[in-house]
Amino acid sequence: MRHITLSALSLILVTGAASAQGVDTSSLHSVDDANVMGPDGDKIGEVEEILVDDSGSPVAAVIEAGGFLDIGDEDIVVSLDELTFENGDYTTSMTEEELEELPTWDD
Q1: Signal sequence: where (predicted)?
Q2: 62-71: which pairs have CB atoms within 8 A and are 24 or more residues apart?
Q3: Are the C-beta atoms of residues 46 and 34 closer than 8 Å to each other?
Q4: pLDDT band, residue 72 (cuts 50/70/90)
Q5: Beta bridge partners of 75
Q6: DSSP state, 80?
Q7: What are the beta bridge partners of residue 28?
Q8: What is the mean pLDDT of residues 39-63?
Q9: In the chain, what are the domain boundaries?
């Protein structure tokens, strides 16, 4: 995994801004610690934060993934286009390999 830099975050936010306009934000009001499920139905992590662009539109989620009991976990940045809200959880069709290539978030 690679750590996200400020310029990379700007790129994510700028490129995600146009696509975020179509994102249904009604379910974003209580996403802290919402489960994120992988394509096989297994839990891959939890939502830690929602990232917004300069206009305040949500464009990405910081997902705490991997590890065991918060040991060895990493916070990764996932575009909201890659997440679907279903039955109280978020799901993604991204594979483990694709998730490992995403930038990490270090707040």
Answers
A1: 1-20
A2: 62/105, 62/107, 63/36, 65/36, 65/99
A3: yes
A4: low
A5: 64
A6: G
A7: none
A8: 89
A9: 2-104
Q: Is the dihedral of CA 33, 81, 83, 85 positive or negative?
A: positive
* Dihedral of the alpha carbons of 80, 84, 90, 91, in degrees to the nearest 10: -110
Q: Rounded distance, CA 106 to CA 9, Å?
A: 11
For residue range 1-39, list pLDDT tens digits in order. 333 434 344 444 444 444 444 445 555 556 767 889 999
Task: Out of 2.30.30.240, 1.10.8.80, 2.40.10.340, 3.10.129.10, select the CATH number for domain 2-104.
Answer: 2.30.30.240
